[in-house]
Amino acid sequence: MLDDSNVIKQKDPEDALWVAGHEYAQARFPVVLWNENHDGRKLDNVVVVGMGGSALAALLIKAWLKDQIKIPFEVVRSYDLPAYVGNNTLVVASSYSGNTEEVLSSLEQAEVRGAQIAIVSAGGQLADHAASYTIAYAPLPDHIDGAPIPDKLQPRMAMFYQLRATLALLANFGVVSPDTLTQIEDVASWLEQESARWAPDVPTEHNYAKQLANQAVGKTPIFYGGALTAPVAYKWKISFNETAKNMAFWNEYSEFNHNEFLGWVSHPVEKPFAVFDIISDLEHPQILKRFEISDRLLSGKRPKATIIKLAGDTPIAQMMWGSVLADFTSIYTAILNGVDPTPVEIIEKLKHELV
Questions:
Q1: Over residues 28-39, mean pLDDT
Q2: Which of 45, 53, 93 minimizes the C-alpha distance to 73?
Q3: SS3 assignment, position 230
Q4: Mean of pLDDT values over 13-32
Q5: Is residue 158 within 8 Å of 28, Cβ to Cβ?
Q6: Confidence band (pLDDT; 50, 70, 90) for 350?
Q7: Catalytic (active site) residue 38
Q8: Among 22, 143, 152, 351, which one carries the catalytic annotation?
Q9: Residue of 280, 309, 260 whose CA lies nearest to 63
Q10: Domains of the chain (ranges, CATH numbers)
């Protein structure tokens, strides 16, 4: 099925595969900050507020730059800010639409507490707020130039835009080095070449994304990452939920070994799951041992894990590679599931009924 171009065109009418194949271009996105001047106050901590894909970029940054960011860095996915947020906190309000109610709630609290504020969005109420109150703002594109379908870009497919914009704001406030943006750009050409290997015209026998989709279809995938790759595992879970409309879960080593590990032992191996271990050769060596030993000890108690070994020479290259592969694989799984990869109708219905 995945090698039939007519089936792909029918099941992917908004050409999500084209979008996935051009995500590499987002790595070159020239971020232009508005209202970048600030009062130079000392920052004691950073809080990024976002939901779903808008939070994911910050989670990647936190894992990638954990040895470089010298102050506490927290990602909040809720309506309320932690009690410690105050005048010396940088609060980055991130919402691709600019209208996410949890983010707007936290933004209001940040203003009441006198925090330093920055905004990432492609428009909506957040963009209006940034303009009205002269707040540091990184505007995002709401589309990809040249896309065959002119509809607005889905937030989960705009993560590299959000990654660059968030880094630009953090660099503006002295939290990270501006060189981090260069490191993102350096990945683009290589990622373009890698993405071409997963394109729809590449047959299944040579297409890793199609092969992974065939392994996942009809099952509930569970994605495991380590300390470095946990955000990538979360990305796979998000992509399968929203794109493939497929239930999926994720967890992180070594926490997995302290609880979920035992959950596999009491049921027959014929479970409707597909297990995927997302492995980086840059991971802590003890975590790599845990992956190997855990799979061996659980032999006969759960489906054998499929190893997704991340390609790339640097942590951020591996994270970006794994993220694009997640989008391709989940789109192909959507096609196998007989669903349109792009719309998220039930989420939109929920938002409408919450108003």
A1: 94
A2: 45
A3: helix
A4: 95
A5: no
A6: confident
A7: no
A8: 351
A9: 280
A10: 31-186 (3.40.50.10490), 190-337 (3.40.50.10490)
What was the pLDDT predicted at 147? 65
Strand-strand pairing, 220-225 and 136-139: unpaired
Cα 29 from chain centroid? Answer: 17
351 catalytic residue (yes or no): yes
DSSP 8-class letter at 156 = G
Residue with tokens 């105050």: 86
* Catalytic residue, candidates 42, 258, 270, 353: 258
Query: Scanning the structure block, which residue is given the tokens 């009418």?
Result: 13
pTM of the prediction? Answer: 0.95
The pair of three-digit structure tokens given for residue 230, joined into one six-digit string:
């946990």
Q: Which residues of 169-208 are buried (b: 16+ CB within 10 A; e: fewer)?
A: bbbbbebbeeebbebbeebbebbbebbeebebebeeeebb
Cα–Cα distance for residue pair 36/303, rounded to 1 Å: 51
Side by side, the strands of the sheet bearing 136-139 are: 73-76, 45-49, 89-94, 116-121, 136-139
Rounded mean pLDDT of the chain? 94
> In residues, how long is the chain?
355
Name the catalytic one among 23, 242, 252, 283: 242
Answer whether residue 268 shows pLDDT above 80: no
For residue 348, indicate whether it is catalytic: no
The DSSP secondary-structure symbol of 24 reads G
Prior bond of 254 cis (ω within 30°)? yes
Q: What is the mean pLDDT of residues 239-252?
A: 97
Half-sphere exposure of 148 (CA within 13 A, CB side): 12
Residue with tokens 């955000």: 231
Q: Which residues contact 295 (CB under 8 A, 6 or more apart)?
A: 277, 304, 305
